[in-house]
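W.,

You were right to be curious about this one. When I first looked at the sequence I had no strong expectations either way, so I just let the prediction run and decided to look at it fresh. Below is the sequence, 559 residues in total, followed by the output.
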Amino acid sequence: MTSPTTSTMPPPTTTSNGSTPTDIEKTSQSDKSADNTTQSEDGFQYPSAKSANAVILALCIVIFLSALDRLIVATAIPQMTNEFHSLDDIGWYGSAFLLTSCCLLLLAGRIYTYYSPKMVFLIVIVIFEIGSLICATAPNSTVFIVGRAIAGIGGAGVMNGAVTLLSCTVPLAKRAKYQGMFGAAFGLASVVGPLLGGVFTTKVTWRWCFYINLPIGAVAIAVIAVAMKAMPGENKGMPLKQKFLQLDPLGALLIIPSLICLLLALQWGGAKYDWTSGRVIALLVVFAVLFVAFCLVQVFMRENATIPLHIIKNRSILAAQLYVFCLNGSFNVVVFYVPLWFQVIQNVNAIDSGIRTFPLILSMVVGIIASGVLTGKIGYYTPLAYAASIIAPIGIGLMATWKPDTSKGMWIGYQIVVGFGNGIGFSQANMAAQTVLRRRDVPTGASIVQFCQLLGGTVFIAVGQNLLTSSLAAGLAPLVPGLDARTVGNLGAVELRNLVVPDQLDALLNVYNDAIRQIFLMAAGLASAAGLGALGLEWKNVNKAEKEHGETKAPQEGV
């Protein structure tokens, strides 16, 4: 099922001297007197190769920055919990960023559709930098979480903006290769991030994990400002009220508090409060009511909704949502809790735990790059989504067999399986959105996919935290009389070793190991469920789809 659009081929595009460009070479010649652009088979004017390369370099820098921020934190979390004395907040250190990103991702898609993508992109980077500065200077856990939330506001527009700008920079048939370059940038940050996080945490202070974002962000802003041409929006000349209504403010007012209530319920249920407590039940009820209201508003608003009906009803978009919700949710859980396993169970410092996650990250990078090359070669992304939903859960299931005395070969090998499995599935949902939708719908479609991607991470990191604290409280009760989930939550991850006498240390480590194993088992089941989404993806050839439903002209200039 494809999006219900009609498309007619436009008349041949002419240059300023009246010639009709029929291929790239003729366009390049006319560029000397015109706009230095290249026309694709669907009639859209793409930038020249030189301009495109500069834009892609800028996008890679921003993706590197965003990935570095997400991955550098994991190795520093144990030391942060020790300084702030609040293990109970560990889930918020990741979830605060993901929550605000989730809440604003859909709105970001509308903004990218109607306003200048370049200006929006620059603004979200600045917001991200402000959040990083707050995190770096945070005096306590609460301020740090606020900083992560602000950084998440900026992060909401990063990957969506990169996909949007890529769709206006190179033809669809070439995008898989360039998304492989995005993966390489992500991979470089993934390798450097945990190591830098460990070095900063051990040798200087964990705060440098966030200070480092400032110079990298400044470079990204400078490159984008210089290299990227101003890109038009679609609302030039519209009344201010109409511009505002295009963003579906009512939908935003419903979905944002709805998601906040959901995450609070997941964060508090079973840890700070019982699942049967009035607070948790009230949060879940409010979430359900607001979410249903949001869905009704979307139906009523139709094509002016945050999620237009013709996009959400597309089979591949529906399948991609389930696919990324499960696959990314499982991988976020793994990335978040593997460093914790190394530091607590194997008693290594932050640097060593970062180094020991290299197999996971490097194999993921190899998978991302390989998937970009293979998709470009065979023309289809669906087979790789199938493979990811098989390989990833097998690897995570193997990780759930880890014990305190697990050999080096086993924890390296299992990480490689998990990383490669997730890597080959990393870009497939975004490729689906770009393939089955018209160009003007790509920002919204990509936002929907990335919304589910981040929501999966947000929800299941919180679920993992709840499993961890509840399992620890139950398992440690015989060793430490009077211990409950709230007490466990108020301790740092490494400080738990000090709860027992040396003779009981092995028992404590077994309890902690079993708690993390439960989290891995949950992640394995989640990755398996991604296969249901993969089965729903249509078989669309990326080398042919652009001619079928691409926009027939570039958007008109606007703000």
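Here's what jumped out at me. Confidence is low (pLDDT under 50) at residues 1-35, 550-559. And, maybe more interesting for your project: Residues 248-300 form one domain.

Coffee later to discuss?

I.
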